[in-house]
Design brief:
The chain is mainly α. It has a domain at 10-61. Helix content is 68%, strand content 0%. The chain contains four helices and no strands. The protein is flat and about 70 Å long. The N and C termini lie far apart (75 Å). The relative contact order is 0.04. InterPro entries: TatA/B/E. It is found in: Membrane. One of its GO terms (cellular component) is membrane.
Length: 101
């Protein structure tokens, strides 16, 4: 039943776009995949395993959240050698008491 659904969808797409457009899309996708393989091969040839390990280590230091980025920026500004510890959950901000009069 799945195969029949895929055949029907392919027929509808063929009817909407026509064979020439689908052929050019497939040709473009094929060229893109070929270029991606060439780039991958070039990078793998130029870079050693040790360089990839260094890249991985450097990427692990990139902050993923705004909180991590601000924490890292703060450490750079104060020149801290050891990381600043912050609590996991911050205390809720209390509003001042309301005086009714």
């Amino acid at each position: 039943m799945h195969f029949l659904n895929e055949i029907i969808i392919a027929g509808i797409i063929l009817a909407l776009f026509g064979p020439k457009v689908l052929q050019s899309i497939a040709h473009g996708l094929g060229k893109g995949v070929g270029q991606a393989k060439q780039v991958k091969d070039k990078v793998m040839k130029d870079e050693t395993v040790a360089e990839f390990a260094q890249m991985k280590e450097a990427l692990s230091k990139v902050p993923l959240t705004p909180q991590q980025a601000s924490k890292q920026a703060f450490q750079m500004v104060i020149g801290a050698d050891k990381p600043v510890e912050t609590p996991e959950k911050e205390a809720p901000v209390q509003s001042p008491p309301v005086i009714e009069g």
